[in-house]
Every structure is written in structure tokens, then in C-alpha cells.
Amino acid sequence: MLWRWDYFILAMLLLAELTDLGETAVARNQRKNRRLRNASGNKLAARRKQAGNSRKVSTKKVNQNKKTATPAKIESRIVGGTSTSVSTAPYIVQLRRGSNLCGGSLLTDRWVITAAHCVKGHSASDFTVRAGTSTLDGSDGITRSVDSIHVAPKFTTNKMNMDAALLKLNETLTGTNIGTISMATSRPKAGANVRIAGWGITRESGTTASQTLEAAQVRVVRQKKCRLNYRGRATITKFMICARAAGKDACSGDSGGPVTRNNVLVGIVSFGYGCARPGYPGVYTDVSAIRQWANKVMANN
Ligand SMILES: *[C@@H]1O[C@H](CO)[C@@H](O)[C@H](O)[C@H]1NC(C)=O
Ligand SMILES: *[C@@H]1O[C@H](CO)[C@@H](O)[C@H](O)[C@H]1NC(C)=O
Asked: Active-site residue numbers?
């Protein structure tokens, strides 16, 4: 199973690209495996491993059903999206921790909302936030550090419920192509079109990093249907929204990024089973359900 919080895969691949272009594939794989093993000391990675197993099983099943199944693989960008400029989403930010990447949205010039799974277990000083850039390297953007992290009270990496966190920036973040977005007051209805955006690598083999922001339109799925879709794999709660479109989805590296409708923030990229697979919508945090909590945190900190 490929959860959106596999975002660190992106980091590994980016790192591989930057640091060992001359390295043999064997050496690279060995290094990768070592990293994964190291990481498996924590809960998050343990879940990841499990998830990987169930992905294999399910692929087999799908194949047996003679559906048009692609083998389980890592799709690490907005799948089926098109390149876009940050001017179409001035509220989007890159959230970096070393070479790890997540997305986020500016709610005010001082506060970023992202996925809890992007930040839980790390300290504020580990992160930087960059805004006003369309490119992955972000050299044309403006950078801020993070003063404090506030994780939603019901979040656990196990259930991925209430997958939201707020970051207070060290100073205000404004400038060209930088703006804020307001939180939705009600959940989008089933059938509504919403927009997802994020950065990521362009190929699962990970030798080329995408330099541009990608966006795609997906459609909200009925909650009841999504619950059935994920039965036995994940519990779809009232803090979640599901959305899909044929061949389009969010994927690793997009975690924490915005889901919008008419320039209002309705969701946060959270998780999914594979990416853009038939029968498995992307799962997003319902912003209208965490709004009260978010407003309280921003007012009190
Ligand atoms: C992983 O563990 C090995 C051996 O314990 C160590 O040499 C290596 O630096 C670790 N790598 C990371 C990324 O922590
Ligand atoms: C805020 O963080 C940025 C990026 O680390 C840094 O350049 C800037 O000087 C910081 N501002 C303050 C007021 O500390």
C-alpha cells in the first residue's frame, strides 16, 4: 500500500539524483535498502512495510480479475496532472525537512496548514517553508523557518484520522505570487470538482525530478462508497474526504498540499492505496471538520 506519507521516498530518489549520478544501480539499491531498514525502527515505517505487502497481494487479485491492472508501483507526483504556475495557486508552499518534501497552504501570512504525518515526531527547527515558486528547487521563492508545530489532537499515524497540522512561521511570508487561502466552512458535496496540486518526481524510477508544479482536477466520491472502497484497508472517518478521476490522483510527495474548490481550501492531501488506481480514490483531510481546531490554535498562539 502506498500511503501519501511515503513522501520520504521522494527524498531518497532526489538525493540519489543529486549525489550519485555515477553510482551503479546495485550500489544505489543497497544504499536505499539500508535507509529503509534504518527507518523501520519507527512506527511509520513499520506501517509502510506492512502496507507494501498488502499492495502485492492486491495487485495479484486485481490481475486475476483481469482488470486493467498496472503492477504496484510508486507514482510520486500528481498523477495525470498538467504543469502549472504558482500564480494559479499562490497559497501553496513547499515544506522541507532536509531532503524530504511535503506541501502546505498559507492560511495567513504567518500560518501554514499541512498534513500531520508530514511533521509529527519532528521539531519545528527541522523544517523550512518556501513560497512563491513554481519550481522544485524553489530558488526563486521566499523561505521561512518554523517557530512551532501544532498537530491536530486526534491524529495518529496508525489511523491517519484528523491528518492536519499548523506551522507558525518565524516571520510573515508575503511577496510576488504569494497569497493566502481561506478554509471551507462545509464539506464539498459528492460529485463536486476539486483541484489538487503538488511537486514530485516525474518517473517512478526516480532519475529525473520534476521541476514544475503540477495540478489536476478530481471529483469528490460519496463517503459511503469510499468506505466500501477502503473496507479492510483503512477506516474512512468524518474527518476525511475521498476524491478521484480516471488516471488522476495525488501521490507520494504531495502530502500536506491543498485541495481547493473555487479558491477555498476544502482538503489536505493525506493518503491513498496506490495512486490513481481504479477503485481506490485519494483520501484527503476534510478542512471544514478541522477548521474550528485550526482557528483556535491560530488565535491562541
Ligand atoms: C543506517 O545504519 C547504518 C548502520 O547502522 C549507518 O552506517 C548509516 O549511517 C545509517 N544511515 C542512515 C541514513 O541513518
Ligand atoms: C526567518 O527565517 C528565514 C529562513 O530561515 C531567515 O532568513 C530569516 O532571517 C528569519 N527571520 C527572522 C526574523 O528570524
From this structure: 117, 163, 255
Does the beta carbon of 145 lie inside 6 Å of ligand 2?
yes
Ligand 2 centroid distance, CA of 148 (Å):
14
Long-range pairs for 64-72: beta carbons < 8 A, 24 or more residues apart? 67/278, 68/278, 70/277, 72/2, 72/274
Give the pLDDT band (50/70/90) at residue 26.
very low
- The pTM (predicted TM-score) of the whole model is 0.74
CA distance 252 to 270: 10
173 Cα: distance to centroid of ligand 2 (angstroms): 10
At 122-178, the pLDDT tens digits run: 999 999 999 999 988 888 899 999 999 999 999 998 899 999 999 999 999 999 999
* Cα 115 to Cα 196: distance, rounded to the nearest angstrom: 14
Higher-pLDDT residue of 275 and 228 is 228
- Please tell me whether residue 281 adopts helix, strand or coil conformation: coil
The answer to whether 7 and 103 are in contact (CB under 8 A) is no
Which stretches within 7-85 are classed as H helix? 7-19, 25-39, 43-64
Quote the distance between the C-alpha of residue 86 and its chain's center: 17
Question: In sequence order, what are the residues at sequence separation of 6 or more whose Cβ sits closer than 8 angstroms to the Cβ of residue 211?
Answer: 135, 136, 137
- 119 CA distance to ligand 2 centroid (A)? 20
Q: Is 187 helix (H, G, I), strand (E, B) or coil?
A: coil
Q: Is the pLDDT of residue 12 over 70?
A: no
> Where does ligand 1 bind, in terms of residues with CB under 6 Å?
34-35, 38
CA-wise closest residue to 104 among 112, 8, 176: 112
Q: What is the pLDDT of residues 256-280, one digit of tens each?
A: 999 999 999 999 999 988 777 788 8
